[in-house]
Amino acid sequence: MPIYEYACSACGKEFEKLVRHSSPAAACPDCQSSDLRKKLSAFAALTGSTASANDLPGPCGSCGHPDGPGACRFQ
């Protein structure tokens, strides 16, 4: 079940909506308008609401590869 991001053309409110196959058409939670624009959104590679760049692995200990441990042949 995907989560879509919308922007309401009538009032400018931006919101997310979990969409099931049987879901009714989306409407703005503020003004109830159905004049919505689906926003282009990227998927989340990290989980949790506090995920940040600090959660990414550090450089490889042996060669310094920026993608972290296991990214290169030197282990």
From TrEMBL:
Tree of life domain: Bacteria
Region (Disordered): 50-75
Putative regulatory protein FmdB zinc ribbon domain: residues covered: 1-41
InterPro entries assigned: Regulatory_FmdB_Zinc_ribbon (IPR013429)
Pfam families according to UniProt: Zn_ribbon_8
Gene3D superfamilies registered for this protein in UniProt: RNA polymerase ii, chain L (2.20.28.30)
Protein name in the entry: Regulatory protein, FmdB family
